[in-house]
Amino acid sequence: MNFDIEKREFLKGLSLIQSVAGRKTTLPILSHILIQCEKELLYVVGTDLETGIQEELAGNINTRGKASVSAKKLYEIVRELPEESIHIQKKENYWITLQCGKSTFNLAGLDPDEFPSLPSYQEGNFSKLPTSLLREMIEKTVFAASNEESRYHLNGVLFVRNKQGAKELLRMVATDGHRLSLIDREGETIRGIEKGIIIPKKGVLEIKKIMADRDGQEEMEIYFDQTHGFFKIGKSLMVIRLIDGEFPEYEQVIPKMNDKKLVMEKERVYACLRRVSTMASERVEGIKFSLKRNAVELSSYHQDFGDAKEEVEVVYEGPPIEIGFNARYLMEALNVMDTEQVVMELKDEGSPGIIKPLSSVEPPDQFCIIMPMRI
Asked: In this predicted structure, what is the pLDDT of residue 218?
């Protein structure tokens, strides 16, 4: 293996792979990346067996071959090099020599044949989707997915096809058991999601990161088989192992009888929540909503520091009601609403509340459900 590549091009590929390679692992080969030269193509690959990333880079291939070296160490070296062409050559015992300007590095490697291969796929199975659509759906759901590894079926985002009359919709849902976020959008039919698949939260965040890096790319190609999701954007390929589990029957927890509706100015309520939550207990982050005609009082209490309260004008004609919520959950839900005004629908002190954008779309194409808490 022998090739030349510009520093900027090499660094771009290596940086995208750092998040999946080099993690704490009992398998040393997983802390490495695979560098592969085929014909006129140069690839770098990283994987943690759950998420794999392959980057196609522009370089001059002198001799075909492959090598496997430490992802972290190679990235650290390339990052510090001058903006010049880099020459890399494979030596005996899986080592490589890297030369740039007057700098020379000899880097130890492992047998590249031990590097796990990415799952195979068929080109004809991919469907195209606008990156802006997928980015929006991810941003408006992934925050609600659980971070607890033990609750693996909640540790991801449900992606499923949904029908409303004659409309074919794409739906994403995420929940951690305390809150839920759902979004429906019109889009192309995607193979493999008819019954719903669960993409792990870590993988979803990696997709979002690659979309941000390939900001000029308007479309992404997507395909799912029974065990993996394949995402192609520009010259990047990401392969994600899907979660093998049953997503909760989320439609059963969507409140149907929330008859108390208030309309709020999103930015005003968000700012109020930030202020009042400074006095909430760090452990539970509880805020009390005290609703009366055309106003809501937000209050919090901390046994060591004191309390806070603030009143905000809203549009509300119903009876008085007091209900507690997690302040952070409320703020994160408001963050993903695009309208200046939002609607909150409540039933009573012990039932979940719904937050959704103020729009005429029925049924709503986006909403968040938040469980109440005792304060």
From this structure: 85
Residue 64 has a pLDDT of 94
Express as a percent the part of the chain with pLDDT over 70: 98
Determine, yes or no, domain membership for 91.
yes
CATH of the domain at 303: 3.10.150.10
Say whether both 243 and 266 belong to one domain: no
Residue with tokens 């695979």: 34
Asked whether residue 152 carries a pLDDT value surpassing 70, the answer given is yes
- Cα separation, 49 vs 34, whole angstroms: 14
Question: What gap in Å lies between CA 325 and CA 215, rounded to an integer?
Answer: 37
Beta bridge partners of 52: 47, 239
In a domain, 357, yes or no: yes
244 shares its domain with 295: no
**What's the full length of the chain, in residues?**
375
pLDDT at 23: 65
pLDDT tens by residue, 190-209? 888 988 999 999 999 999 98
Among 53, 84, 114, the domain-final residue is 114
Give how many domains the chain has, as a whole number.
3
Give the residue-averaged pLDDT of 298-313.
94
| Chain position carrying tokens 């109440």 | 372
In a domain, 197, yes or no: yes
| pTM score, whole prediction | 0.91
Give the sheet arrangement for strand 109-110, strand by strand: 109-110, 65-70, 32-38, 41-47, 51-57, 236-241, 228-233, 219-224, 127-130
Task: Give per-residue pLDDT as tens, 265-280.
Answer: 999 999 999 999 999 9
**Over the stretch 332-361, which tens digit does the pLDDT of each residue have?**
999 999 999 999 999 999 999 999 999 877
> 221 is in which domain, residue-wise?
128-250
Question: Quick check: is 95 in a domain?
Answer: yes
* 304, amino acid identity: D
Question: Tokens 């304060």 identify what position?
Answer: 375
Alpha-carbon distance of 256 to 54, in angstroms, equals 45
